[in-house]
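job 3f2a | input accepted
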Amino acid sequence: MIDLDLVTPYFRSREVAGRVQEYGLDVVAPAAVSQYLDTPALTPAILGALQQTEHPVILDVGGDEQGARALALYSDALRERGYAMYFVVNPYRPFTGDTEGIRRAIAQIERASRLLVTGLVSNPNLIASTTVAQFLEGQRVLELASRQLGLPIAFTAIERGLLKRISELLPADMPVLPLERFFVMPWAE
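job 3f2a | predicted structure (189 res):
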């Protein structure tokens, strides 16, 4: 996994690299001295990770135009390697609550990254306070956007605790990624 999220200070995979590595996932991130900075400290190991073909590569990129600019640095290498670029949508976040907002966000990211979004990831949540009704309403927003934008929903991400109450309400052919929370907000500790 390559941590290219240079924008969001609260949700950076490099801050939980040790725990993620326990699951067999290598994390390529800025050097230890700069891991707590929000500066574009990109390491040459990123290009090396993209050029190797023995293992799949996941890039964690900030979800807006500014975050996608870092991805543009590697757009040629990604096109050469082949890629799937998923836009993770939480319709309860600002600007992505309807198809038009999602369309604008995708256009900004595609322009900034010089890559095309190939699918959507449905992630409707209000963190720990998400209800079944809220999840299902958010899922409907994504299903409508998927149809209107002509982009498939690659999978639905859902917190493991909520999955038990929702799994039978989802379409049988919908791939589901159960999530386990690794990040704890500083004010929630």
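job 3f2a | Residues 1-82 form one domain.
job 3f2a | closed
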